[in-house]
């Protein structure tokens, strides 16, 4: 009985580790994809405009991309307010027995992952 319980615990820990790793790969892949898309379009605009001497529209285009990405992340925080912070204090509190409504729900997890994705993509400058 005890060995069975320990085996289930280790399998659960392994599954959580693999899941978190896959979410990290998902976020990293899409941050790179959105950033590459953003800079390809803005780069083309800069090249076209540098010949004409109109750099300002290209910079406003970059600003529009960043503001759109950050807006999407902000809307996700409105959907699930618990996903707004880093999450470390909330998880520490939860593990210490403090019940925070919604802290371990799938909706919170999805809003947090997608919000991080758009926040990083909206703030990346290199």
UniProtKB/TrEMBL annotation:
Q: Which InterPro entries does this UniProt record tie to the protein?
A: Cl-channel/antiporter (IPR051280), Cl-channel_core (IPR014743), Cl_channel-6 (IPR002248), ClC (IPR001807)
Name the UniProt key words of this record, in alphabetical order: CBS domain, Membrane, Repeat, Transmembrane, Transmembrane helix
Where in the cell? Membrane
Q: How does it sit in the membrane?
A: Multi-pass membrane protein
Pfam families membership: Voltage_CLC (PF00654)
The lineage's top-level taxon is: Eukaryota
Q: What is its main location?
A: membrane
* Gene Ontology MF term list: voltage-gated chloride channel activity
Query: What parts of the sequence cross the membrane?
Result: 12-35, 55-79
Q: Provide a GO CC annotation, any one.
A: lysosomal membrane
**Stated name of the protein:** Uncharacterized protein
Q: From which organism does this entry originate?
A: Hucho hucho (huchen)
Q: What is the lineage of its organism?
A: Eukaryota, Metazoa, Chordata, Craniata, Vertebrata
